[in-house]
Write a structure and sequence with these properties.
With 521 residues, this protein is α/β, with parallel strands linked by helices. The chain has helices spanning 30-37, 51-60, 80-85, 102-106, 121-128, 155-198, 213-296, 301-310, 316-366, 381-427, 429-432, 504-507; strands at residues 21-25, 44-48, 65-69, 92-97, 111-116, 202-208, 438-444, 456-460, 467-476, 481-484, 491-500, 512-514.
């Protein structure tokens, strides 16, 4: 690959001055030898292949130009560049290098020019400040208006040259156009960076259809809430059945309590009659006891019997039989006393039983807790047990009914909430997207004020240029969502708002604008 020499002319200098003494350091390159050999007599040329000899020569004599060939990587001539720059007199340093190392040598202090290999004769002659020698027989000077074309060129060659000229011109113009396009592109890119850094009125349009992640999540939520609603309704049915069962149990318990109350009332009446009879019996026995006691007192029948027997008014047999009668009367007196005591004890026990039955009756009627009735008589244990069990069954049924009613109230509240949530989710954008297409706009939190319901939306053909009205902003979707910045590619947080009556092409673009179009056009 060949390229023109890279020039470094001082300011105000039109072209280089031809040097008189030239020092060449490097391998014997064929193209250099050919070019320099043709200039013998016009230049004082010195050639060296060794760095040390070249430095010694340069210090011994003063040279105008030093030409260093750096194409040979084995040549240790890299050190000569700073050495030549420090010779102590002005010298023009020219380096011959491969195309890949041009930038390296241009940054070395003291290097005037860098030539890229392979070299051209005209390129090297311009660096040396020489003109190309014309062949013999050809005039060295030509009129200014004479066209510079080789003598004897055919028409085909001339057309070929013109075509090459046109191609070169077209290539230059294409390069200029490409540079212009690149400049416009980078300028537009810079404007976009500034817009996204400063603007708070942009959002990212999205289309929600069945199969989208948000729509699938909404569909799963609706299904789960419907299942929960069905389960709640089933539990409510079960609670109604449980309440009915508990109500029946409570009614049965109350019926048993009424039966027990009736039995208790009858028992109280029977025992009250028993007390009355016992009191009457005690009264009669007391009279009998009193009469027998009077007869058996001293000075009574026994004294009279002894007096009659002593006077021989009665026989021994009558006396004995009368004594036996008195003994039997004494025994009868003791038996009457025992009967009186037994009747009194029975009356007291019956009175205690009546008090116990009355307490049980009051407890059953008032619904209070039943106290321990272990002191009840054996014949009433069954009645007491039935009353206690009936009261316990009633209290259990009442507690179950209250629990079922409270649970059903909670389930009714859950049913109402689930019904409202299902209806709200089905009416939302993601819910309606299950059955039809819905367009939404992702709005970062920083841009939320520019996307309020009712405001207009604008879509641009070139991101921020050539914008048109594209729809209006609807209601916001509940919840927080994450997305990727359409320009910088970093994750951002925000919300979704529904876009109503949005143009189809606007929904497919990367961003959409709220409030107004960017730059007002």
């Amino acid at each position: 690959m060949s390229t023109a020499a890279i020039r470094k002319f001082p300011v105000g200098q039109a072209k280089p001055v031809r040097p008189s003494r030239v020092l060449y350091l490097g391998p014997a390159a064929d193209e250099l030898c050919t070019v320099l050999a043709a200039q013998v007599g016009r230049l004082d040329l010195s050639y060296h292949a060794d760095v040390q000899s070249a430095i010694t020569e340069a210090r011994a004599r003063q040279y105008d130009l030093v030409l260093v060939d750096q194409r040979d990587s084995n040549l240790a001539s890299q050190l000569i560049l700073p050495l030549i720059s420090g010779l102590g007199y002005p010298v023009k340093l020219v380096v011959i290098s491969t195309f890949s190392d041009i930038g390296h040598y241009l940054s070395v202090p003291g290097v005037a020019r860098v030539l890229a290999a392979p070299l051209r004769e005209a390129q090297l002659l311009r660096v040396l400040g020489l003109e190309r020698r014309t062949p013999r027989g050809e005039s060295e000077e030509r009129p200014a208006d004479e066209p510079k074309q080789a003598p004897g060129k055919s028409l085909v060659q001339q057309l070929s040259d013109r075509c090459m000229t046109l191609v070169s011109t077209a290539y230059k113009r294409a390069a200029f156009a490409l540079l212009l396009v690149l400049f416009v592109t980078f300028s537009f890119y810079g404007v976009l960076i500034g817009y996204f850094l400063l603007s708070t009125s942009w959002g990212a349009p999205m289309t929600l259809t069945r199969g989208h992640e948000l729509v699938l999540k909404a569909e799963r939520d609706i299904t789960e809430m419907r299942v929960a609603l069905n389960q709640t309704e089933q539990r409510m049915t079960e609670s109604e059945l449980a309440e009915e069962t508990s109500t029946n149990a409570m009614n049965d318990a109350r019926s048993q309590i009424k039966t027990a109350l009736g039995t208790i009332k009858r028992e109280i009446k029977v025992r009250e009659k028993q007390i009355i009879i016992a009191k009457r019996t005690v009264s009669r026995l007391s009279k009998v006891h009193k009469e027998i006691a009077q007869q058996l007192e001293s000075g009574g029948v026994r004294s009279n019997l002894n007096e009659l027997y002593s006077k021989r008014l009665i026989s021994r047999k009558d006396f004995t039989s009368s004594s036996l009668g008195l003994l039997e009367a004494s025994q009868r007196l003791v038996s009457v006393e025992n009967e009186i005591d037994a009747m009194q004890i029975m009356a007291e026990e019956t009175d205690g039983t009546i008090e116990l039955l009355k307490l049980l009756s009051v407890a059953l009627q008032s619904g209070e807790a039943i106290i321990s009735l272990s002191a009840a008589p054996p014949e009433l244990l069954l009645v007491v047990k039935q009353a206690v069990e009936a009261r316990a069954a009633e209290q259990l049924a009442v507690a179950q009914i209250a629990s079922v009613q409270e649970s059903r109230a909670q389930m009714q509240a859950n049913q109402s909430v689930l019904t409202q949530q299902i209806a709200a989710l089905e009416l939302s954008a993601v819910g309606r997207a299950i059955h039809t297409r819905i367009d939404v706009v992702f709005v970062p939190y920083a841009n939320a004020n520019s996307f309020t319901p009712g405001q207009k939306l604008y879509s641009c053909s070139f991101t921020i240029l050539w914008c048109n009205e594209a729809g209006a902003i609807g209601e916001a979707l509940p919840g927080e969502f994450n997305a990727v910045h359409p320009f910088f590619g970093k994750p951002i947080r925000g919300t979704f708002v529904e876009a109503s009556a949005i143009a189809p092409e606007a929904a497919t673009r990367e961003i959409i604008h709220g409030i107004r179009a960017p730059f007002f056009f």
